[in-house]
Amino acid sequence: MEREELETLVFQSITLNGIFDHVLIFWGLIKAPFVVPLLRLMVNICLVMSVMLFVERVYMGIVKLFIKLLRRKPEKIYKWEAMQAEDLESGSLAYPMVLVQIPMYNEREVYQFSIGAACGLSWPSDRIIVQVLDDSTDLAIKDLVEVECMKWASKGINIKYEIRDNRNGYKAGALKQGLKHSYVSQCDFVAIFDADFQPEPDFLMRTIPFFVHNPDIGLVQARWKFDNADECLMTRMQEMSLNYHFIVEQEVGSQTYAFFGFNGTAGVWRIKTLIDAGGWKDRTTVEDMDLAVRATLQGWKFVFVDDIRVKSELPSTFKAFRYQQHRWSCGPANLFKKMAAEIATNKKVNLWKKLYVLYSFFFVRKIVAHIVTFTFYCVVLPLSCLVAEVDVPIWGVVYIPTTITILNAVGTPRSLHLVVFWVVFENVMAMHRTKGTIIGLLEIGRVNEWVVTEKLGDASKTKASSSVPVLSNAPAKKSSSAIWGRLNGLEISFGVFMLFCAWYDFNFGRYHYYIYLFLQSIAFFVVGVGYVGTLVPNK
């Protein structure tokens, strides 16, 4: 019996060795004629894209520096005069009519806060209409939202509770339908807030004057402020990325070309601009960006005001964040495909603005940035450690990414010590963004998938409110299927790949990237097993 077992083990060993030998022989045959040239080509393509991204980031950094040094504020660039306080009490007709739209979908945790904040805006009561657009499919939540609207209506607020019998067009469809009501015809401007956004009372007092004194302004966008940025490491990483987006990308676009992508919330539109642009369209998952591009092609100007900040909530579970990032990467790529020719042939804006929108705004930021981040740092660079014949210049591996990282990190000084975590986490998310970008460009698979970002609200506020039913906090036992469902196979696979490359580079490599490769593999594993940051479960 023991002899038979020994023979079996020897046979298996010979078989495995034979397979390994065949793999090595096959690798030797294809390496020189196929692998090396292909990898060199990929390295060169990635270096070109890296330079494109580097130039874009440095350019925006320089412009932002001049904006800071010259203290260029929107109130100084455009005519801005405060609304007269004495008119507020009398409800003067000098105040334009404003519509406030709050689209929501099963927002149990946050609906009270957004409705309360909108109803608390400082504006003459006879010159404002609050419109709650409820697409909820949960009847219990629907009833709660309607009761909340009735409560504010009893206090004298002009609030409208509007529902639809379908969810066609998702958010874009709800906003479009909301503008069709007869009472909207008396409104000049529309402010939009998602269900987790809470504007300060003076929001309209600070934004509407831009429209009143500058007839060519079509949009005023405020900055987001994050209530739960300190909830976990993942929310801190998001804060770093979004702060750069607002502080640099939005402000530079506003001050140089009077154009940037509408963020979908915390902004005010001139209704005439909406009409000129053709209204809301649901052809992509970024209806806000779609509207902004069409409006700028009609010659309207946009203003970003960094000093006006609106409280909001960041996704605190990886599942919610992943769905959001898919929408934010797939949608712009799909929109670029649909509108590139229209932008290029437009006659109402000058050549430089068209180049800015096509090259800088779309191509570099929405396509190149995602693809090069994942392809170069998670595929090409690790592979180059396995193929000694392929050289990757140090300026492409160290100098360019270091500069880009520093330019991004300075927007959130309090998180500078977390920059390494941010780099490896962004590289993991770049995989999902690249996938979304390709889906958007090719218009395949989940190109029009819309998953509403889950909002958890402020637990203390929810518990303090007796009118909101609170679900049981008793810990639930997780089934094995739930645990397996939390695993992300693609991330785990890349974690294994990066770990192998780190081991190979440590033992046989000449680049000594093994520390980066090891850290990146850990990031893939952490996300892959369903935990991000400070052990936030992927629920």
TrEMBL record:
<feature type="transmembrane region" description="Helical">
    <location>
        <begin position="487"/>
        <end position="506"/>
    </location>
</feature>
<feature type="transmembrane region" description="Helical">
    <location>
        <begin position="512"/>
        <end position="536"/>
    </location>
</feature>
<dbReference type="GO" id="GO:0051753">
    <property type="term" value="F:mannan synthase activity"/>
</dbReference>
<feature type="transmembrane region" description="Helical">
    <location>
        <begin position="356"/>
        <end position="377"/>
    </location>
</feature>
<keyword id="KW-0961">Cell wall biogenesis/degradation</keyword>
<feature type="transmembrane region" description="Helical">
    <location>
        <begin position="9"/>
        <end position="30"/>
    </location>
</feature>
<keyword id="KW-1133">Transmembrane helix</keyword>
<protein>
    <recommendedName>
        <fullName>glucomannan 4-beta-mannosyltransferase</fullName>
        <ecNumber>2.4.1.32</ecNumber>
    </recommendedName>
</protein>
<dbReference type="Pfam" id="PF13632">
    <property type="entry name" value="Glyco_trans_2_3"/>
</dbReference>
<keyword id="KW-0328">Glycosyltransferase</keyword>
<feature type="transmembrane region" description="Helical">
    <location>
        <begin position="397"/>
        <end position="425"/>
    </location>
</feature>
<keyword id="KW-0808">Transferase</keyword>
<feature type="transmembrane region" description="Helical">
    <location>
        <begin position="42"/>
        <end position="67"/>
    </location>
</feature>
<dbReference type="GO" id="GO:0000139">
    <property type="term" value="C:Golgi membrane"/>
</dbReference>
<feature type="domain" description="Glycosyltransferase 2-like">
    <location>
        <begin position="190"/>
        <end position="384"/>
    </location>
</feature>
<dbReference type="GO" id="GO:0071555">
    <property type="term" value="P:cell wall organization"/>
</dbReference>
<comment type="similarity">
    <text>Belongs to the glycosyltransferase 2 family. Plant cellulose synthase-like A subfamily.</text>
</comment>
<keyword id="KW-0812">Transmembrane</keyword>
<keyword id="KW-0333">Golgi apparatus</keyword>
<keyword id="KW-0472">Membrane</keyword>
<dbReference type="InterPro" id="IPR001173">
    <property type="entry name" value="Glyco_trans_2-like"/>
</dbReference>
<dbReference type="InterPro" id="IPR029044">
    <property type="entry name" value="Nucleotide-diphossugar_trans"/>
</dbReference>
<dbReference type="GO" id="GO:0047259">
    <property type="term" value="F:glucomannan 4-beta-mannosyltransferase activity"/>
</dbReference>
